[in-house]
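Protein modeling request. Please complete all fields; requests missing the sequence field cannot be processed.
Requester role: graduate student
Desired output: 3D structure, token encoding
Chains: 1
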Amino acid sequence: MNVKMISMCLACAGAFLVSCGNAREKKAETADAAEKTEMVGNDKDEHGCIASAGYTWSEVQKDCIRLWEKGVRLTSVENAENTLFIVFSPDSTQVELFFPEEGAPNEILDRRSLPAGGYAWNAEDDDTKNVRLENDKWTVSQRGKLIYKQAADK
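Delivered output (154 residues):
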């Protein structure tokens, strides 16, 4: 009876030790798989901006920003589904245009004084976009044609 009891105890202890070993192996396999799987938010660009969190690099801000937080949203005059965001430099001497088209490069425009007073942001060539504040709303025009405007407050 004593031998039977000892044998039972040894069998239980052996089963326990084997199951612990399997648990450690499974835990190690899970850890390896987690390392191989890319984590959400681990998609930093060359500036360190995390696109999956809504951040994009702004050259005029010299920072990763969320356009809807730092920018002004303008709507296309031709297609209300297209939006453009404009972001001003901290000193307002430049404005950066973020276009809705995939892969479209941002444009950076410089502030210039207008003869009648006020400012416009543009480049020196005639084909540039012009950013202006008209009737307390931001507008973007090109060759004298209005292409984007800030929506009226709702």
